[in-house]
Specification:
Oligomer: single chain
Shape: globular
Distance between the termini: 71 Å
Radius of gyration: 27 Å
Largest sheet: none
Number of domains: 2
Order of helices and strands: HHHH
Length: about 100
């Protein structure tokens, strides 16, 4: 009589442990979904966009590099959304907007 009660108790406890783990996993997953996104990095995310679209003129050796060097973040910040005359891709514009919104 004691053995069936002990077995039933162990299943109940085991079920609680699994649901607790499941809840912890759900919380971790939810936290990762709402975690703040990092701001775009100039060297790895922004500069390659301009290298693909604005070579060779705005990079070393180009015609207008002395006046508007696109390999420098301050040039991109100064020009702002005026750059979108050449950058048409919505995802690239979004990245640049996020970069421009940085303090």
């Amino acid at each position: 009589m004691l053995l069936p009660a002990l077995i039933a108790l162990s299943f109940t406890t085991c079920g609680r442990t699994q649901s607790g783990s499941s809840q912890a996993l759900n919380l971790a997953t939810s936290a990762s979904l709402v975690a703040p996104t990092t701001k775009p990095d100039f060297a790895t995310q922004i500069k390659p966009i301009f290298e693909a679209r604005c070579q060779p003129c705005h990079f070393p050796g180009g015609k207008v590099y002395d006046r508007m060097p696109f390999d420098r973040p301050e040039t991109i910040t100064r020009l702002g959304t005026k750059l979108f005359t050449r950058i048409k891709d919505q995802n690239e514009q979004r990245l640049i907007r996020e970069f421009l919104g940085q303090p």
